[in-house]
Amino acid sequence: MPNIQTPRRHKPSARRGREPVQQRPSARAPVARGVFGHANELPPQVEQAPQPEPTTGTRPKPALEGSVLVTGVCGRLGKLLARELHRTDQVVGVDRRPFADRPKDIVHHQVDMRRKKMKDIFRARNIRAVVHLGILHDRRRSDRDRHTWNIVAFQKLLDYMSQYEVPKLVVLSGANVYGPQANNPQFLSEDAPLLGAQHFGGMRDLVELDMLAQGFFWKHPDTETVVLRPCHIVGRVHNAASNYLRLDRPVMVMGFDPMMQVVHEKDVVRAIQLALRPGVRGIFNIRGPGEMPLSHLIRQAGGRPRLVPSPLAKVALDQLWKLRLSSFPAQELDHLRYVCMVDDSRARTELGYEPAHSIDRALKDVRRLRYQME
Fold first, then answer.
1. I need a labelling partner for 16 at 20 to 30 A (CA). Which of 42, 205, 277, 373 fits?
2. Rounded CA gap, 225 and 218, in Å?
3. Closest CA relative to residue 85, chosen from 100, 105, 99, 101
4. Tens digit of pLDDT for each residue in 318-365?
């Protein structure tokens, strides 16, 4: 694409001792932005100082020109991410749900990603990056609903990205795609096979979505595709892991106490911000500050584990599921028996990722929402 230059200002008459007028940056060059996403009010003759590279614990450098489109923006992670990004980026959110408490400078489109209106959004907006969080995890929905939302909608999204040459894609997958297995190594790298759907068909769509993103990575090398696979995300988010830890007496399988990894929701948001930097591409595991036995996690979250023999554990989880006392289906029982932990050394080395929230802080947020619900 041609490098479109901004219109030149008329140069003032030259005077002795006056420095020459500095040229304004091109439209494709990095531009420093203010707190609410607008350019800082600097004198036209003052050149903006270069931004330092982001380091752990600091915000990423201001983005290039263009908007960041966030799907699933009305979810817990989507709102957290949008409120962080809008300080340095123009944010466009897409979700079927309303975004009543959104910041004023965030554009929200309440649309279904499977509809043709998504194409109009790509056509009308100068989108430089897409963050895909619009994944349906509700196990109570039918297989057909989950497939059309997770796979069909994502395929359309990839088509629009290819058609409009969007240079960056960040997909939030999950470490569960590896699957808990009795013969798993202690830590799984990004090259490990995706066996999450081997014993649990509900994971089939998520594994397929992850593989679609990998296929897009190879077919479209001009697009920087990033796939993040975080371990169990906990905090004030409503998901299977957090809801399980909020139970007073969560079920544990007698004779099993697997090591677990959890990561605070804000650390996941931080990892997404790092993945949006220019030049970053690939697959990255994301974990929290360490590991802990499942029984210790339950006690730190304020619960007391209910030890159940293996033959009865499935029956107990089925009853909790039917009574809507748990969002943890019995088909995921292997997560309570076997290890599925990840090695995040690649994210720490290449992304500069470092978890900022301790396990105790993450579980404190789990407990806080639990007490509010009581």
1. 42
2. 9
3. 105
4. 887 788 776 677 778 899 999 999 999 999 999 999 999 999 999 999
